[in-house]
Amino acid sequence: MTAxxxxxxxxxxxxxxxxxxxxxxxxxxxxxxxxxxxxxxxxAQTHLIENYPGFPGGAEGWKLAYxxxxxxxxxxxxxxxxxxxxxxxxxxxxxxxxxxxxEYLARSVVIATGARPRHLGVPGEEELAGKGVSYCATCDGxxxxxxxxxxxxxxxxxxGDALYLARICxxxxxxxxxxxxxxxxIYHDNLQATPNVEFVWNAITQRIxxxxxxxxxxxxxxxxxTGRLRTIDCSAVFVAVGLIPNTDFLYGSIDxxxxxxxxxxxxxxxxxxxxxxxxxxxxxxxxxVVTAVADGAQAAERAAEYLAI
Length: 309
Ligand code: NAP
What we know:
Elements: E1 6-11, H1 15-26, E2 31-35, H2 41-44, E3 48-49, E4 59-60, H3 61-74, E5 78-81, E6 84-88, E7 94-98, E8 103-111, E9 115-117, E10 133-134, H4 137-140, E11 148-152, H5 156-166, E12 171-175, H6 185-192, E13 197-200, E14 203-210, E15 216-223, E16 229-233, E17 236-239, E18 243-245, E19 275-277, H7 289-308
Parallel strand pairs: 1-2, 1-8, 2-5, 8-19, 10-17, 11-12, 11-17, 12-13
Antiparallel strand pairs: 3-4, 6-7, 7-8, 9-18, 14-15, 15-16
Helix pairs in contact: 1-3, 1-7, 5-6
The chain binds NADP nicotinamide-adenine-dinucleotide phosphate.
């Protein structure tokens, strides 16, 4: 089915996409947000956002995401659940093909598809996914109440996950391949002050080991300095080693940087007229909720400007 054309199609319903929808709809444009699963993106899977202004004590991720969607819909943004597979961004109107077989038409497009968790690529990881290997601590942490969990990674996600899990699990090992965290210092201080968190530095994950019941029983890591192997018994391994941009459907349609992120200028404009990028999918230096919503507003305003020409 081919839907009738809208002013702005927003691909992705995280904070960037929902804010683009809010600004576009409130500005009088017809706006359709196409989201693969449920709106909210990574935000909806984050336990607590402590650095989004206006929420002393922190904002619950799912609640903030829900409210962002509600606010945009109150101004008329439409939402549809579909998985975008291909785009023709130079057609007039622009064409968006989705897995359902539906085709969406739009005079302008905001790409706000965010990024997904990177995998470690070690033996045991794929086989044990959902059986103790997880990429979302807030989604799955509760399954491991009073058990031992391992978090792999050294960025803000890994640090935040370790702090979150420390409140649920008996013990949390934070396995990182270097001897210091990439995460913001406040995370480091908080982790050091958390008695049931233990750092495992300079450790490269070799494999994730299954127990007799087919679920995670241990993780094997190699000390980079000594070459010694260490086995840490655990019930869960939370992998938090960064993100891969969701841009597979864009290859050949738009300029991507070497990491696969969409190249745009500070106004969120890509080189393709009428096509904008917002949020984590955009090539930029700071990926935060606050920068995602700023991008969303910018992209929608520039789309309105483009449509007025
Ligand atoms: P990230 O900042 O890119 O950190 C990824 C971490 O994983 C790094 O420590 C990296 O090690 C490690 N790593 C990468 N590949 C690995 C591999 N194959 N094996 C082992 N370790 C590996 O990713 P992120 O933590 O997911 O964060 C993504 C973005 O979201 C960042 O911009 C972050 O600031 C933002 N974020 C912000 C907040 C917040 O402010 N509250 C919370 C979550 C995320 P090296 O350090 O050695 O490279």
